[in-house]
Amino acid sequence: MATLLNARDLSKTYGTHTLFTEVAIGIAEGDRLGLIGPNGSGKSTLLKILAGLEDSDDGEITRRKKLRFAYLAQDDQFDDDAQPLSTVMARIQGGAGSAGGGGLDLETRAAMVLSKLGFEDLHQPIASLSGGWRKRVSLASAMVNEPDVLMLDEPTNHLDMETVLWLEQFIKQARMAVVLITHDRTLLEAVANRVIELSQAYPGGTFEVKGDYSEFIRRKDDFLDSQATQQQALAGLVRRDTAWLRQGIQGRQTRNKSQVKDTDDRRSQLKDIKDRNNAPKRTATIKFDATDRKTKKLLAAHHISKSMGDKKLFDKLDLMLTPGMRLGLLGPNGSGKTTLLRLLAGELSPDSGSIKKADDLRIVQFTQHREALDPKMSLREALCPVGDMVEYMGNSVHVAGWARRFLFDPSKFRTSVGDLSGGEQARIFIANLMLQPADILFLDEPTNDLDIPSLEVLENALTEFPGAIVLVTHDRFMLDRLSTDLLALDGQGGSKDYASYAQWQGDQPKRNSGKDRPTTNGKRKQPSTTSTKLSYKLQRELDSMEQTILEAESEVETFESQANDPAVIADHAHYGKICMQLGDAQAQVRKLYDRWAELDAMS
User: Fold this and answer.
1) How many CB atoms sit inside 10 A of residue 404's CB?
2) SS3 for 516-533, per residue?
3) Model-level pTM?
4) Which has the closest alpha carbon to 122: 110, 132, 134, 135?
């Protein structure tokens, strides 16, 4: 594959803090490059440097002539009230340049990209979109100029599972090279053909493996084992050198300058390799405090129902939490996962049904938005609001030692929480939760912004927690490893139990094929088979509407299949025609649903 970009000897320092030095990295056509590393190693900064958005302190980057980049930051930035960027189409047109497009006008290019990403209403307000659909708008803004390299920084943050699966397929089928920073190990396994870890554990600051994430882990373990063995061998040589240097006068007379120099070199090498071998050990120490309650039934919910406005989130839901149970919640954004957590915690009341809790039940919650953290508070105050000591599992721990447990240097105690990274804020939140003995942990997206080493430590801590856990996460690896039970909410009031993530995933094609599409007002209608008001002609139209819609949706699926065909995509003219036909077919389906709702209301 042809090389698109080649970087050598890149270094970056902020103040007195060095992120990385002498980093070398290349990007070629067809790359699906996963960039990983501990929090604070400089992954996001490196990605911006490669994209030309920031400058390195040292080093050189060679890019192919007229190379086009598209960069997506971790957080999507939208001003919902700004004009004229208030709608999906306006956002794409307002953010697009003139490059790319194969000669097609901007509006046609934008319509083609949005149709491919699943948008039906191209003029839908940005403010009405969920986080997952906003991520698609950001992708469309990046793709409209047909970039050669697409750079994604933590693209799965705040996405529901369905959108993560969609993103996985999108990356697999993308025509451009893709570089992504992610802690989603399942996503890396599915899409990456190269993995690079940015860490001080390696010579040159990086370790690269061609292959998927499993191959990377195998090769990484082999390398680190070899490096540890190398340290032991070098330490033996240095001990021998030290003994030689300590010999008496007669020994000194026989020394030569080259031997002394070799001794100094080996000492320097030993120091470097010790520093590298110690680097991977910088992970937070996480262990949740449990009450050791012996009660078999901690919480029981019987026939609970909850609606928000006109939307039924779940109906007549039963569940029971017992010690050792780890319940994973699945469902699209807006299906009620967070609402269910708040309801079980007692923050909300069910519309119907009952929730019974064990006496003096202690619940600890991790909220995805981390509202409890005051951005103006200092790091020291966030970790220890009063005095110099925290109480953890019956012992007093000094705040400096408590901070180091979560990888914070006490020299940064005056730093405001708002100035810390997302990963650092997540570690503060976990530190606060660990101080509270719990019977049940409610965890709403605890993996956001955590690096892979911290995720692995968190997983081990949750596995060892003896109480009950209810977990909402888009991290499929964690969900599959931890969950003893799964509950899926469908966003339409229904729910279903699953024994494993694989069982849920296998059920998705069947469930998706049976879904009806929303009408323009967002409500879904079921067909009516009886009527007392409709004329004979209208009743026949209503009776045949379901079959008519099925045929129209079949036509949409045909055009969608053609729009995803690489051969069609390569032919811009034909691809544009297919996208237009797809848009017309989707519009026809919407009209049929509107008509169905109208007839059903008349009956």
Assistant:
1) 14
2) CCCCCCCCCCCCCCCCCC
3) 0.70
4) 110
Is residue 158 helix, strand or coil? coil
d(CA 158, CA 136): 13
Residues in the chain: 603
Radius of gyration of the chain measured on its C-alpha atoms: 29
Question: Which DSSP category does 515 fall into?
Answer: P
Measure CA 264 to chain center.
Answer: 46
Q: In whole angstroms, give the CA distance from residue 183 to residue 202.
A: 19
Residue 318: Cβ within 10 Å count = 12
Question: Rounded CA gap, 368 and 351, in Å?
Answer: 25
> 11 — phi, psi (to 5°)?
-135, 150
Closest residue by Cα to residue 326 from 496, 469, 438, 488: 469
Output phi, psi for 296, to 5 deg: -80, -35
For residue 525, name the pLDDT band (cuts at 50, 70, 90).
very low
Q: What is the DSSP string of 107-137?
A: HHHHHHHHHHTT-S-TT-BGGG--HHHHHHH
Amino acid at position 415, single letter = T
Q: What is the pLDDT of residues 417-463, one digit of tens each?
A: 888 877 788 888 888 888 889 999 999 888 877 888 888 888 988 99
- Residue 250 clears pLDDT 70, i.e. is over it: no
Report whether 31 contacts 194 (CB < 8 A).
yes
Pair 413, 401: CB distance under 8 Å? no
Among candidates 345, 357, 346, 298, which has minimal Cα distance to 325?
Answer: 298
Q: What is the pLDDT of residues 360-419, one digit of tens each?
A: 999 999 887 666 678 889 999 999 988 899 999 888 999 999 998 888 888 889 999 888
252-261, 287-296, 335-344: which is most confident: 335-344
